[in-house]
Write a structure and sequence with these properties.
The structure is a single chain. Helices cover 35% and strands 27% of the residues. The protein is of the alpha+beta class. The protein has a single domain, classed as Aminopeptidase. A seven-stranded mixed β-sheet has the order 1-2-3-4-5-7-6, with helices on both faces. The longest helix has 16 residues. The protein is globular, with a radius of gyration of 16 Å.
Length: 207
């Protein structure tokens, strides 16, 4: 079974260490919400309410299955622990009333200077034209904040909306893999990648 990232160029130990430290030091993730912050264990009930909607949970293979409050609590604990290792950030978005309106999970492979991002907005906020601008802001932030060379993302074979967003933002389709869920089951996924050089060239900037 292939694992992400598909494109692999081992970076130096010094750069790997710097990337891990940058992840540990990050305390904010780009957001389209009224506010955002990193998730804590106390957020488990609110995050469970968001993730329990079929329009959210059905598209994200990395979520615990079956989805329970205890499973979401363990998911947050794992993300917090992996942040300490310089590998993962789990961030929550909030609307003006203080309700959770979305989440982002940033996953970094420091040894490859690569990363991916998964996440979702609350169903009532979807399909309002924020996806492309939000993805662009997130990719730029990841390349700059963590000094990455590559962003490698997956999506379900039938998630044509996200595939279209990847295509519009300059990602290149790299093929299909079997993504492994936390419970050991698998999902057929497309892999889309974009390099630092290609990304900043599209922005008219030097990488």
């Amino acid at each position: 079974m292939a694992e992400l990232p598909l494109t692999r160029n081992r970076t130096s130990p010094e750069r790997e260490a710097a990337i891990r430290e940058a992840v540990r030091q990050a305390d904010q993730v780009p957001s389209s919400g009224a506010s955002s912050r990193l998730a804590t264990i106390e957020d488990a009930p609110a995050l469970f309410e968001l993730l329990d909607h079929p329009g959210v949970r059905d598209w994200i293979y990395s979520l615990p299955r079956p989805l329970t409050l205890e499973g979401v609590r363990a998911y947050i604990e794992t993300c917090v622990s992996r942040r300490e290792r310089g590998e993962v950030l789990l961030s929550l978005n909030f609307d003006e009333e203080g309700r959770v309106s979305g989440f982002s999970e940033v996953h970094i492979w420091p040894e490859w200077a690569a990363g991916e991002v998964a996440g979702a907005m609350r169903p009532d906020l979807q399909n309002k034209g924020q996806g492309g601008s939000g993805m662009a802001a997130m990719f730029t932030w990841m390349f700059e904040t963590f000094d990455l060379d590559l962003i490698s993302n997956t999506t379900a074979l039938d998630n044509v909306r996200i595939q279209s967003l990847f295509r519009k933002t300059g990602c290149e389709y790299k093929g299909d893999i079997e993504s492994r869920r936390p419970d050991g089951t698998t999902r057929a996924s497309q892999v889309w990648e974009v390099t630092r050089e290609v990304w900043f060239e599209r922005l008219g900037r030097t990488a």
